[in-house]
Amino acid sequence: MSREKLIVAFLSLVVVASGADLLTDLSQGASRIHLIQETILLSFAFTILIWLFVENVHKKREIANLKAELESVQTLPTPQSAELVTARKQLGEAINTQFTEWKLSQSERDVGLLLIKGFSLKEIALLRGTAEKTIRQQASSIYQKSGLAGRHVLAAWFIEDLL
Predict the structure, then answer these.
(1) CB 45 within 8 Å of CB 21
(2) Structural domain spans, the chain
(3) Minimal CA–CA distance to 115: which of 65, 153, 151?
(4) 99-109 pLDDT, tens per residue?
């Protein structure tokens, strides 16, 4: 179970338990201060629960938009020139060869390609369905293994001589 789902489950339990306790306290004539405390706790938990729900909806929309953007890039017309087709193929082979030399894992290779394509760490995390911290660690590992300073240097490393 993911951390977010665990938090949502816990907050849902708090909301239900607090609501039931508040109703019980109301029927038994509990003090106003106690009722106010219960109402504040219930409101706070419910507000956070709604906030998490809204964040989840926004995250799903962003993922869908990123996937659509990625698909639209992948469906762009391919170059008709034999020279461009050959150059693109050779660049892809060069990237794979270099990634092999740097001994990148498959996940690092995937992240590396997305970095070269210009995606941000947050976008890569959303596309891959992992935490941004994980992508940041993988990117750091790529930079360390390659001896390069960052994403821009990584991209430039492959295209500098082409220009």
Answers:
(1) no
(2) 3-74, 82-162
(3) 151
(4) 999 999 999 99
* Residue 127 in tokens: 């596309």
Q: What is the pTM of this model?
A: 0.56
3-state secondary structure of 76: coil
Please name the CATH architecture into which domain 82-162 falls: Orthogonal Bundle (1.10)
In the block, residue with structure tokens 């109301």: 26
Which residue carries 């938009």 as its tokens? 65
Q: Which two tokens stand for residue 134?
A: 């994980």
Tens digit of each residue's pLDDT (9 = 90 or more) over 59-75: 889 888 888 887 887 77
Whole-angstrom Cα distance, residue 149 to residue 132?
Answer: 19
**With 0-12 CB in 10 A as exposed, 13-18 as middle and 19+ as buried, what is 138?**
buried
